[in-house]
Amino acid sequence: MSRVEIEKKIQSENDRVAEGNRRIFNDAGVFVLNIISSPGSGKTTLLEATLDRLADKLNIVVIEGDISTERDMDRVRARGASGVQINTGGGCHLSSRMVADALGKIDLGPADLVFIENVGNLVCPSTYDLGEDVRMVLLSTTEGDDKPMKYPAIFHEASLAVMNKIDLLPHLTYDMEKVEKEIRVLNPESEILRLSALTGEGMDAWIEWVENGMRRKKAELEG
Amino acid sequence: MSRVEIEKKIQSENDRVAEGNRRIFNDAGVFVLNIISSPGSGKTTLLEATLDRLADKLNIVVIEGDISTERDMDRVRARGASGVQINTGGGCHLSSRMVADALGKIDLGPADLVFIENVGNLVCPSTYDLGEDVRMVLLSTTEGDDKPMKYPAIFHEASLAVMNKIDLLPHLTYDMEKVEKEIRVLNPESEILRLSALTGEGMDAWIEWVENGMRRKKAELEG
Question: Among A101, A107, A114, A192, which residue's Cβ finds the most Cβ atoms within 10 Å?
Answer without folding.
Answer: A114
